[in-house]
Amino acid sequence: MDLINVFISTLMSAVSNCSLYSRDHASVEALSQKAISILNEILEGVECLEIMIVEGDLIANKLPLRDVGVQGINLMKRLKRKGISRIDFLRGITFPEIKQLIAYISDSDENLKTFTHIRTGVIDVKIGGFKIDSSIDINLDNLPSFSSKQVEMVKEVYKGISPFKKLNVAGLEEIVVNFILTFRKEVGILKLISPVKSYSEYTYTHATNVAVLTMFQAESLGMQDSVLRDIGISALLHDVGKLFISKEVLEKKDSLNEEEWEEIKLHPLYGARYLAKLDSLPRLASIVAFEHHLRYDGKGYPKLKVNGKKQHICSQCVAISDYFDALRSRRPYRRELEIKEVIAIMKKEAGGVFNPVLLDNFIRTINIALSE
Q1: How many helices (H) and strands (E) does the chain have?
Q2: For 65, phi and psi rounded to 5 degrees?
Q3: Cis amide bond preceding 268, omega within 30
């Protein structure tokens, strides 16, 4: 990350000099050469350096940049003026390309040419201003590989979750965008569901599957992209409270005793408390984390002092996805169930555990997917 900060600082020094003098000034030439030299060093280890603006922070390859200083702030300001929130630098970038980018950033009237090794994006991830860059390429030739990659990304985000660390919101954003784009390509929903490969991977795989199923429900109900974004992030984090439960209880291969079950039932509260403190997340995330086991009839957990409180509709959607994926996944203490078995069980819980209207819609979409 230190090298990336140096690259940004050098790039913006070149931009400042280009604004003061001209693109052909000796200082601009020297700083441009230094910038591309540093960039090529970075790209020796990765195919692409992706720099994004997320909620006022600079994110490089899904990780937040610390201590970006004046130059980092200047870069964000200049990119925002251009309506850009993401730049990708690809391996093989040339000196003319970096010089053109510097001229473009420095001059409000300069137009950016199309280059092979520089891509700019317009994903705006501010709350209430979410846009999707439909030019992002999603390779759907190998869907199991695509889904596995999303699970790995969820795993990386979850590993960084701590009361003492900043949540990697950019990583969550990318996962959500990737799945929205697959929906646009009319991919069968069941093809995006990942199998649980090991007990230790269940949390990450389950979170990914619940997000896919919930976003699919939301889209089938006609919800807009900005809502899909919030729902997707909330669904990915619905079980985040389990990270504050002992590993021994979570991965126990036998049935839980009463004390262990009471500990598990605390995870909605733990998750809601953690997420509520994060300003970069939609408020919906903490609501869903708290309510997803509440049940449609309010008889679930956590127990509420206020009678008659109803789940948020997004919590109801997540509850359906959560239940469906849990039953169709193999667990240490039972076999996985066939989809038709799961649907039969869920139908019996309509009006109690689940909103009957949402459940009917979910079952209808799953049956359509089964017939494809």
Answers
A1: 15, 5
A2: -90, 130
A3: no
Q: Is 204 exposed, middle or buried (0-12, 13-18, 19+ CB in 10 A)?
A: buried
For the residues of 216-248, what is the DSSP string, one character each? HHHHHTT--HHHHHHHHHHHHTTTGGGGGS-HH
- pLDDT at residue number 304: 83
Are 68 and 74 within 8 A, CB to CB? no
The pLDDT of residue 308: 66
Strand partners, 334: 331
Residue 209 — left, alpha, or beta (φ > 0 → left; ψ -120 to 50 → alpha)? alpha
pLDDT confidence of residue 120: 79
CB-facing half-sphere around the CA of 71: CA atoms within 13 A = 18
pLDDT value of residue 156: 82
DSSP assignment letter at 133: -
In sequence order, which ranges of 221-338 are alpha helices (DSSP H)?
225-236, 247-250, 258-264, 267-276, 283-291, 313-327
Q: What is the pTM of this model?
A: 0.64
Domain parsing of the chain, residue ranges: 2-121, 143-371
Task: Determine the Cα–Cα distance for residues 274 and 265; give it in Å rounded to an integer.
Answer: 16
Nearest to 157 by CA among 293, 225, 64, 66: 64
| CA dist., res. 368 & res. 372, Å (int) | 7
How confident is the model over 99-111, as pLDDT tens digits? 989 988 887 566 6
pLDDT in tens, 51-72: 887 766 788 887 777 777 788 8
Indicate whether 349 pLDDT > 80. yes
Q: What is the dihedral of CA 211, 123, 72, 57, to 10 degrees?
A: -30
CATH class of 143-371: mainly alpha
